[in-house]
Fold this sequence. Notes:
Rossmann fold; single chain; 36% helix; TIM Barrel; 6-stranded parallel beta sheet; 20% strand; alpha/beta; globular; 3 domains; 18 helices
Amino acid sequence: MKNSYLKYALGLTNLFLSLLTAAQTVSVANYWEDRQAAISLTFDDGVQEHYTLVAPHLDRYALKGTFGINGKYIGDIDEHYAPRLTWEECRIMARNGHEICSHSWSHPNLTEIDSLALQTEIRKNDSVIQAETGIAPTSFLYPFNAWTPQVKSACEKNKIGSRLCQFALGQRNSGCTATSINAWLREQIDQRLWGVTMTHGIYTAWDQWDEPWILWEFFRDLAFKKDSVWIDTFSNIQAYLKERDAITLTTVWEKTDFVITPTLTLDRNLFQMPLTLKIDGLKKGQCIEAVQDGKHLQVSYRGNYSTVNINPYGSPVRLRYILQNPLKNKTLCVIGDSYVYNHGCPFTETWHYKVAQKHHMNYLNMGRNGNCIAFERDSIYGEPLYKRYHAIPKNTDYILIIAGHNDAYMVGENIVQQQVLRCHLDELLKGLKKEYPHAKIGWVTPWNVAYKGFPATISIIEEVCHKYGISVLNAAYTSGIRPNDPVFRAHYFQGKNDTAHLNSKGHDLLIQWGEQFLMGL
């Protein structure tokens, strides 16, 4: 009788676990951070205008490009066809996060040369790029877009991939207009595609622009679509897609843990992109934690599902519900601008106040309307954060920084101002880590406002926070808040023309999103 009961109980347990497992849906997101589409901007021939004109516009909007060069012509600034990049210019672009890749040594049609000449074109260019920039090229752009399976196999050896199709982005030959470019971009987003553009010259070289401001406006438009479009180098996106398609995920329940085991057999020296997992079917209203390789991973709540970025070569990822409340009776200090102070409404309507109340936290609001991270303004706005953070009580358990909106207006398209922000942000985070060594610190970025300074400001916040190991909740790309949508603003912002301040209903949208972030710090 006893054995029968044990068998019955074990059967119920197994049934319960199987139901739990069946309820989970785990998959790799199509694109990084679950974006809807992806875009890579590629530039051929190593034209010097790529350094003097293109890269500065990309840098203003924190966009990364892929620049294919021909080593034979580098430094030929007297070339009648078009002055070419110098190696120093290539090094500067690489340091700024752009990809320098191979476009062959001397730009022949690779389908019309013999195998020995093909190998010379590939190896000679790869060697000189690595020697001059310190980075081995991991992608290939075909001269004249000409390739065969045999050429492709040779060019992709020891690389992530090569450009096989492209959208020609120029005017003299391709006839692009603002309308045709926007239609192409809309198609990439609607059909959830990876679009690859190809540009040559601006005022020189092939396929010149008579109206280059159309290209610069396209860059700007891309920057404000980062919540739905992943814009990155050719190699990064190609690596993600190949990893996504090659990985195997095995899932199982082990007691209280939902265990996801990734298996990927690609060359990890080449394929180094983390992957974004989508986890659906978890209990609604409960926060989860994720652990891989002994480290806690940041889990992002997305409404009906959650995402987490994993190492595809790492140990099994363990997900579990957070049962013991780490927030209860702790002290939460929220410091920043009017996102914190809540502009013209009481801060008791903010999502962070509501989360603190839910968990019986001691709550301190140190928001100042108009306050900046890095820039001095009129005295009414108070000292910038990099100076006034010392006022945070030393016994604070959680420090949440919500700032950057006002800095974005100060930064605009000015690269010098970007560096001012970067330096003072570095000073702020260094000081916080030193003065509050036991506090859990997190940063929430501004929304994705369609103003020229926002993409760069958000990118700098992520960059410097990563340097100091501070978790970032990217409200621009993961919150679901749409400040550029007038219908959304009418329902959830404090005014129909307001792009910064949520009303109480708007803050309610972020309670579980922010709670998950705080729980995981």
